[in-house]
Each structure stands twice: as C-alpha cells, then as structure tokens.
Amino acid sequence: MAALASTVHASAVLVGTGAVLIRGPSGSGKSQLTLDLIEAGRTGALRLVRLVGDDRVYLEPAAGRLLVRPAESLAGLIEVRGVGVLRVAHEPIAVVALVVDLAAADADRLPDVARRRTTVKGIELPRLAVASGASALSSTLALLNSPRDSWT
Predict the structure, then answer these.
(1) In contact, 130 and 100? CB cutoff 8 Å
(2) DSSP classification of residue 9
(3) Closest C-alpha among 126, 152, 143, 151 to residue 37
(4) Which of 72, 109, 138, 150 would suit a FRET pair with 85, their CA atoms being 20 to 30 Å apart?
(5) For residue 52, how far is the Cα from the chain centroid?
C-alpha cells in the first residue's frame, strides 16, 4: 500500500461480492447510509454486508478494478450520530462495484445513461446520484437488489 499517497473522504461497504463506495460532502449522510446498509444486511434485506471503511478510505486501481481499503487509523470504526464512534467488524479490502454520490447536484429523477456511470482513478463504474433530501437508502437498496446488468 506504499503506492497509495492519501485517503479520500468517502465510506465503503461490502455488499455481496462488491463494495458500495459512498461519496458526498461533509454532513451529507455517508456514515448514515453505511449504517443503514449494514443494518439491511443484519435484517436480511441484503446478503453479506460488512463495513470496509467510514469517513476516509484508500482507492487504488488494479487490473481494471477499483480496490478500496479503510484508512489504517479508522479501520473498524464508524461514526454513529448521537452515540459516538463504534468498533464493528470490517473487511480489509474490497472491489468497488457501485458508486453512490450523496447530495449530487446532477441527480435527476430519471437520469440519462451517461449520468449513471462515473470514472474513479481511471476505472469506469456504475453510479447512483442521490439529491439532497432524497432517500439514499431506498434508492441504493432498489439498485442493489436489481440485476447488475440493469445498473448501467
């Protein structure tokens, strides 16, 4: 990991075989969506859900895929508003399968195909743009529970 120069402000959750990378400005709900997805896994709405990293993560392109790892000092930690920082089980690395952008200025009710893709560190990925005030969880669950070939 020496080649990784710095972390980015984002959270990531492994859902099944791919990670959801959650981006957005401070206070946009990254940690909340992360917690909601973990809870969806606990209740069975999603399968195999584990924290990768909250608040800051490393992103690294490798063999045409985007890898995500937790920042070392934050590994296994997640912020819960009104409670504080909790330690939870986490994955040390995952392959990003979906990018969720919270408080996205370009979020549309029915986005065109171009807005449903993004490029991160040279890797093109499916993208869900969520407007400020919209339910990030319901949109994310709907997408995650649909066939992956419908994500683009």
Answers:
(1) yes
(2) E
(3) 143
(4) 138
(5) 9
Longest dimension (CA), the chain: 41
Supply the pTM of this predicted model: 0.91
Interatomic CA distance for residues 135 and 5, integer angstroms: 33
Q: Which two tokens stand for residue 67?
A: 């890898």
Query: How confident is the model over 87-142, as pLDDT tens digits?
Result: 999 999 999 999 999 998 888 776 676 678 999 999 999 999 998 888 899 999 99
Q: What is the DSSP string of 90-135?
A: B-S-EEEEEEEEET-TT--SS--GGGGEEEETTEEEEEEEE-TTS-
Please name the amino acid found at residue 24.
Answer: G
Length of the chain: 152
Q: Given 3.30.750.24, 3.40.190.10, 3.30.1490.20, 3.40.50.300, which CATH number is that of 8-143?
A: 3.40.50.300
